[in-house]
What we know:
The complex is a heterodimer.
Chain A (H helix, E strand, L loop, with lengths): L1 H21 L1 H11 L12 H33 L2 H16 L2 H12 L3 H25 L3 H9 L4 H31 L11 H10 L3 H21 L4
Helix pairs in contact in A: 1-10, 3-4, 3-6, 3-8, 3-9, 4-6, 5-6, 6-8, 8-10, 9-10
Chain B lengths: L1 E10 L2 E11 L4 E5 L6 H8 L7 E6 L2 E2 L5 H6 L1 E5 L10 H11 L4 H14 L16 H13 L5 E5 L7 H18 L2 E6 L2 H7 L2 E6 L2 E6 L11 H7 L3 H5 L19 E2 L7 H8 L6 E5 L2 E5 L1 H13 L1
Parallel strand pairs in B: 3-8, 3-9, 6-7, 7-8, 11-12
Antiparallel strand pairs in B: 1-2, 1-4, 4-5, 9-10, 12-13
Helix pairs in contact in B: 3-5, 5-6
Amino acid sequence: MNRILKNRVTLIYTLLFLVWIFQFDWIKETLLFFLDSKNTIVQRSSLFELAYQHSYIVLLSTTLSILIGLSLAIWVRLSRSEELKQIVLQFSTIGETLPTAAIIALSVPMIGYGNVPLVLALCIYGILPIVRNTIVGLNTIPSEVQEAAQGLGLTRLEQLIRIDLPLALPAILTGIRIATVINVSAATIGATVGAGGFGVMIIAGIRTYDTLMIIQASVPVIVMALWFDRVLRAN
Amino acid sequence: MIQLRNVTKKYDKQEALRGIDLNINEGECIVLIGPSGCGKSSLLKSINRMIDIDSGEIRVFNQSIESYRVEELRRKIGYCIQGVGLFPHLSVKENIAIVLRVLKWKEEDIDQRVNELLSMTELPLSYINKRPHELSGGEAQRVGVCRALATNPSILLMDEPFGALDPLTREKVQLAFKEIQKKLHKTVVFVTHDVEEAILLADRIALMQEGKILHLDTPNKFMNLDKNEYGSDFLGKDYSLRLLKRFTLADLNLKEVRSFNSLVNLSLGSSVKDGLSYCLNAEQSIYFNDNNHIYELSYNDIYNFMQRINHE
């Protein structure tokens, strides 16, 4: 039952997203009925283009977060060092408390305008949930399971691959899901430094007081976030 | 097979092991017994280096355990723990085969070995695809024993393996383990705080207190331990009675008879304790039938037997 429901909801999100992106004219008519929009600006990028850029930025930054986050957590695990664990958790917490805007602003002078500072900021932002969830997931493995694995003569690496990671997988997936969902919405801010994505249209809409335009670009962001939230659930 | 020389271990301030000397012969089952915190678990875990000792020496297969790579040492030694610690995401077969997979055994060899182990522990072969959460406590423990025996190690360390089972299941698993041990003759180090378990399984019992071995002997000899107040306290004043469980009526060399009054429900395979229990309700001798032979049992038989093992 749950599975069917989940698939159906995912399907609805997918359809809504596609219709919104490719057939926005249908929706526009309905929305204009409620809104008083000037709708005078000629858009340079199509919604499809923005969607492509947005997904590209999110997927790239989240993939980097996963690679870095998992490596850090695995390094902590293999070292069995409590100190190292605290240091890694501290650093990733710091990464989380820095506002995305600040990271972007700080990186522009060094890297320049465009997609790169945004990807960097999102990547740093996504590391914490992944590191923390992976470490917590590995820590919740029952002690007798760990003792048995060790006592049977598995090396730390063999334990990690055969026992620890499979058992921590649900927690790791949760971390990835949180990171992705955060990044989908946080990516909109990248437009301020010349990055692509739905943010471009949202910022343009804000500048010209065009409500329709803001809605046009923010609804797909919400739907995309909801879609990832569904798809990346473990069961 | 296993030699310990002056082994010590300290946790912070507490001394867990205070100069342990112990020689464990090939094929014998040593049971370490004592109250919580006496160091019995630490002693067991120091043998496969789950705990590193502070001083002294432990030799396994006539070689210091320090000279082995730690994983290599552990693969030579089977290890069972109280919580079993089956891997919840793996099937019974994969649980048993995990080290064999690491050692890159061929699939058909693994199948054969797993089937061998399952039938030895009297588990149905259909269990290979079950998950640990589908097993009862006793079954899980049997799978744990299979897993420990997978690489056919000649040494087996068991840390209160049956401690979490209910009394009925526990007795069944104990008897099953005793049968397996009769066939395999592993060198077993077994930790328990259950005196009856120790009596049933041990070739020798090591009674421990505060990090030292107070007494090391066969279960029969512990009968005469009254002088040592601590020992008799821990083993219980009814030690002799408990000891009876170790023996069956076949050990008593009972007389076969032709005339009898009425029969009780015993056989030569019943424990002497059960026999005594029936005697308590009878005025004189009791009679039982085993395989169409009638045997007579009286208090005197049990008394004579106790005298005999006492002086052995």
